Amino acid sequence: MPDVIYATLPRRFAAAVYDMFISFLPVCVVCAGAFSSAGKDINSMMDKLDGTSILLITLYLVVYEVTLVVSSWRGTIGMRILGLSVQDLKTGATITPEQAVLRSVVFYMPVIGSVLLLVQPLVIMSTKRHQGIQDLLAGTVVVLRTRPAALD
Q1: Residue 90 CB contacts under 8 Å (≥ 6 apart), including other chains
Q2: How far is the C-alpha of 60 from the C-alpha of 114, rounded, in Å?
Q3: Residue 150 CB partners (closer than 8 Å, separation 6+)
Q4: Residue 134: phi, psi to the nearest 5?
Q5: Which of 40, 38, 20 is nearest to 28 (CA)?
Q6: pTM of the model
Q7: Percentage helix, strand, coil for the chain under 3-state DSSP, each rounded to 5
Q8: How confident is the model at residue 3, as a pLDDT?
Q9: Where would I find the H helices in 36-128?
Q10: pLDDT, tens only, 38-87
């Protein structure tokens, strides 16, 4: 691959924060449906957030990421705002749908994702290419875009 600049932890974290806020509205819609009949007690609200709701939220997040990462954008809206893109580690090309699904499922699955939040920063800081666990498993890397987004 030609000279690339690998995305650092702070930039990747900022992109994830943008994506969290962008994803917040659809997730709220799912939660509102679960909470609508729960009343005002927080315990009854949490009881209504069942496995189906969690599955729908996870599915939405995976579809959001996969759709954008395999597109010409090569990244989520948060990544685009911060000038990042995801590419194949070996070729530098747009990643395949299979790679995108693997990255997203590993990152967004509730149990796996919770563990990742704890170790992910250490992994990103300790790898030469600043790869997260999902990147290592999928053979991908997050880099700074070589062209400004306005030229696409």
Answers
A1: 139
A2: 17
A3: none
A4: -65, -35
A5: 20
A6: 0.80
A7: 65, 5, 30
A8: 79
A9: 42-48, 51-69, 77-81, 97-108, 110-126
A10: 555 556 655 666 677 778 778 888 999 999 999 999 999 999 999 999 99
Q: Identity (one letter) of the amino acid at 65?
A: E
- Smallest CA-to-CA distance from 141 within 78, 62, 71, 85 is with 85
The label of the residue with tokens 């969690």 reads 54
Distance (Å, whole) CA 91 – CA 117 = 28
Question: What token pair was written down for 19?
Answer: 């994506």
Give CA–CA dist 116/67, Å, rounded. Answer: 22
More confident residue, 131 or 105: 131
End-to-end CA distance of the chain: 20
Indicate the pLDDT class of residue 7, thresholds 50, 70 and 90. very high
Using the structure block, give the residue that is written with the tokens 């990244």: 75
